Amino acid sequence: MRLFERLIALSYGIGRDTVLNGGTIEPLSTHPPDPQRLGAILLHLKAQAAAPGVHGIDYGAVAESDAYGDYRPYVSGLRAFDPGQLAGREQRLAFWINLYNGLVLDAVVQWKVQRGVGERPGFFWRAAYNIGGLRYSSNDIENGILRANAPHPAVPGAPFADSDARRRFSLDHLDPRVHFALTCASRSCPPVAVYAAQRIDEQLDQATRSFIRGGAVEIDPVRGRMRLSRLFQWYAGDFGARRLAIGDKWPLLRFVAGYLDPIDARLVLARRQWAVAFTRYDWSLNGVWDVKAHASGRG
């Protein structure tokens, strides 16, 4: 573990056994879990978590659902799972994206987060699973695995040292579209979706297009201004810009244009100079616990 990561663990009281899939729930089987079954469980969970008239996730319904009852033993079985059995880029992407989203949802339910992840300081370092005997936090999965061992925007250095046993599972190439597939339990995050290896590129394109067209990009052609989701600033280097989008914003706009509708894309690309700002990130919870209370205005 890097020095900075050790300091974070110390400040939040995180130990090697600080995981959400400890020994209290027995796995469904004595055999390691099938990685493809994770997607099926999450699809069922997503269906049971939907609530009419509620924006986001019904966490109360999740906690009481049959699907969540299947999910918990499944992730307990990950203690005996070897990520090295994931074959190829597509299967690795689908598994780790789904697991990240499942882990964050699981953490909200287990810790009974009511208003936002800020209720649990160090949420993304504390939320973790034991996978094959090694601890993976949501930050480890996002930055160490899915971002090809790229530094966290606020933490210097790669998450996994060369000697770290988890390093061999990092993806070889950073695909910036993963940012629009990861759900961080907050309103400004992309919505929950479930990913399949055989359709991963199609689904990542769709997730990116939906996020960008769904309010993450605002264009004011009269004033020559654009507002982008704060994600584009935090992870500017993933989109070809300088760290934290200091200086030239054009690489961000060029990426965005590839997922706008054709008319907006031409508008953006035709004008080389835009005044670019980044919107405030809404960290409030992406759902509710009590649908009835919410509907009556008490949630």
Description:
- This protein is mostly helical and 299 residues long.
- It folds into two domains: 3-196, no CATH class; 206-278, no CATH class.
- 41% of the residues lie in helices and 8% in strands.
- It contains twelve helices and seven strands.
- The chain has helices spanning 3-12, 35-49, 59-64, 66-77, 88-111, 123-126, 138-146, 200-216, 231-234, 250-257, 262-270, 291-295, and strands at 57-58, 128-131, 134-137, 217-220, 225-228, 275-278, 287-288.
- A three-stranded mixed beta sheet has the order 4-5-6. A two-stranded parallel sheet has the order 1-7. A two-stranded antiparallel sheet has the order 2-3.
- The radius of gyration is 19 Å and the shape is globular.
- The relative contact order is 0.14.
- The model has no long low-confidence stretch (mean pLDDT 92).
